[in-house]
């Protein structure tokens, strides 16, 4: 439709397509917003790869902020979801099933 906008009035194109003007501009904005966070997605992916998937959204947000870029943690969390990046949870030393080093030395 963008190609025809130079040749025909927008109102005529919308009438033929059966679209409301608001729907057209909403979809146009959605397409542009998809390209808005390309650099941030690359930065998040790079940080995740460098730390072998052990950084969650909080630590990735802190790393990006320490580099001097202002970014909201919710944005990082949403983009990590889109990129299907999830931090690995390391096994806890005190969690269930953990073996303590001094457990074998105990006597009852």
Automatic annotation (TrEMBL):
<dbReference type="Pfam" id="PF13276">
    <property type="entry name" value="HTH_21"/>
</dbReference>
<protein>
    <submittedName>
        <fullName>Transposase InsK for insertion sequence element IS150</fullName>
    </submittedName>
</protein>
<dbReference type="InterPro" id="IPR025948">
    <property type="entry name" value="HTH-like_dom"/>
</dbReference>
<dbReference type="InterPro" id="IPR050900">
    <property type="entry name" value="Transposase_IS3/IS150/IS904"/>
</dbReference>
<feature type="domain" description="HTH-like">
    <location>
        <begin position="39"/>
        <end position="90"/>
    </location>
</feature>
């Amino acid at each position: 439709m963008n190609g025809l906008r130079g040749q025909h009035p927008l109102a005529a194109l919308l009438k033929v397509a059966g679209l409301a003007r608001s729907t057209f501009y909403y979809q146009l904005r959605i397409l542009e917003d998809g390209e808005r966070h390309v650099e941030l997605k690359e930065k998040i992916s790079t940080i995740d790869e460098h730390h072998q998937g052990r950084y969650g959204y909080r630590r990735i947000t802190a790393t990006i902020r320490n580099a001097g870029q202002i970014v909201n943690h919710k944005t990082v969390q949403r983009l990590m979801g889109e990129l299907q990046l999830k931090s690995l949870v390391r096994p806890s030393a005190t969690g269930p099933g953990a073996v303590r080093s001094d457990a074998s030395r105990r006597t009852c």
